[in-house]
Amino acid sequence: MKTRSRHLAKVVGALALAATLAACGSSSTAAVDSDGLTKLAVGNFSANTLTFPYVIANEQGLFKDEGIVTETVNAKSSAELTATLIGGSTQMAVGTPENVMAAMDQGQGLVAVAPFGKIDMALVVPGDSSITDVKQLAGKQIGVVQRGTFSERFAREILAQNGVDPEGVTYVAVGGGVTMEPALRSGKVDATVAATSSVVLIKSHGLDLKALVNTMDGTAGAVGEYGLQTFWTTTDAFKQANPDVVQGFCRAMAKATNWIADDVNRDAGMRSLEKLLDVSTENAGHIWDQVHTSWSTSIAAEQWQKNIEMTLGAGSTAVPFADHVDTSCK
């Protein structure tokens, strides 16, 4: 309950920001540039594998093929991404369940659009740790990116799946890979939730890690099967006013998703990851091998509902699939 209250407070703050931003932009009609291309402001995370399909769609000219030119608007947080979309400063944006679904639950007219990104999280401990099983985490300190965020929710789900009381551990905010590493080295935390890119980065610095569970290798149980980490979003108003633009965006992203899934593109994809993440060729290869099949161009209603319940609470029916997920993109 405390976690949900903390998160809802963040959502309320984000929605307040959105109300302020609404005066600065309009999401009703897409503009056209001098070349006749539709201009689309897209909210994005920079230097993050979560939006890799967007990177590839731009690099491969897939948006231009659909008559679209994108203006990337980078944000510092997922809450900011959702707020700027609602406020009209962007027309499409990557979203995370914790913010988008909560905003939908608060009555915001948002629509989820493909591609849908599989949850990429592992619960890891230092290689020399005596901890070898999730059950041994009872009473321990677990690192999460930030309190009340999806990484904490993931940890809670994994603990519960393994018979450990989620309230019986201490959650410690450790940030991303750069600040996560010293928290592990110093013993500030016994374990931490980390994405593939963070694990690869930390290992490259000489700190061995072992995964107790990992969504990318099937060891995370049910949450690894159905969990979503990202999807793309627009507003009902923009979709209704610009259906062809939304379809064009979605088609370009679907082509990018298929390009990434095809391992024949590994070398080119690695070069893109090197540039995106500022990592070595070797590390880019490790990341590619883990994540390149992480995105899907569709989602079933059952999977959507499971993510709603994981995010908003068991039994939640306030964000129905039919009203909030675009299924027309192929």
TrEMBL record:
It comes from the Bacteria. This is NitT/TauT family transport system substrate-binding protein. GO terms for biological process: alkanesulfonate transmembrane transport. It is found in: Periplasm. Keywords: Signal. Residues 1-30 form the signal peptide. Pfam families: NMT1. Its main location: periplasm. GO terms for cellular component: periplasmic space. Gene3D superfamilies: Periplasmic binding protein-like II (3.40.190.10). It comes from Rhodococcus tukisamuensis. Belongs to the bacterial solute-binding protein SsuA/TauA family. Residues 51-262 form the SsuA/THI5-like domain.
